[in-house]
Amino acid sequence: MSSVAARELPTTALLAAYQREGVYTDCFAVTVAGHVDFTNYVEAFYTTPLFKIERWLLGLFGYATSDQDARRLALGEVSRFSVWQVEARQPDQIMLNDKSGNTRSWFMIETKRGDTTLYFGSAVVPAEGRSRIGIGYRALTGFHCLYSRALLDAAANRLPSARAGDD
Predict the structure, then answer these.
(1) 136/144 Cα distance (integer angstroms)
(2) From CA 80, how far away is CA 8, in angstroms rounded?
(3) CA atoms of 102 and 83, how far apart (whole Å)
(4) How many degrees, rounded to 5, is the angle at CA 17 between CA 130 and CA 96?
């Protein structure tokens, strides 16, 4: 996981609007060899064995999803995936908000000189009427950052170009 690093949000990031509002945001990135299709990145992320644990847990609460559902989200065929709904989408990025409306998940790719940088980030929006996030969110920030890095690393390793670069 050493290649996944915290990064500044790109200025074009959909998540940047939340950063400008002063809410908690984070951004992690990893660069892989070759061109990665955005659809393949999103699908790879949501179908990693690590994320399937989260999908299984959400399924216990009535929010079950399949690999096919992940593919349909990645292709733009659906706007809902488990507890998330698409908030904004561009050809190279997507942002989803969760059922509570308090968190955002963001994905973006950037291809330069034949390599692709995969971005993943989050925002935590305070509950309506509050100016700051609660103590529960703050207490889990360390775990959240570690988990985010692990998810991004797992997704990068599922992509064909990333595996080809390991030879």
Answers:
(1) 12
(2) 28
(3) 12
(4) 85
Dist. CA 46–CA 142, nearest whole Å: 21
Q: What CATH code is carried by the domain that includes residue 15? A: 3.30.530
What are the residues facing 102 on neighbouring strands? none
Reported as a pLDDT band with limits 50, 70 and 90, residue 131 is low
Beta bridge partners of 124: 24, 103
pLDDT at 166 over 90: no
d(CA 19, CA 35): 28
pTM: 0.89
Per the structure, how many domains does the chain have?
1
Averaged over 138-158, what is the pLDDT? 89
Closest residue by Cα to residue 40 from 163, 167, 166, 165: 163
Structural domain that includes position 148: 5-164
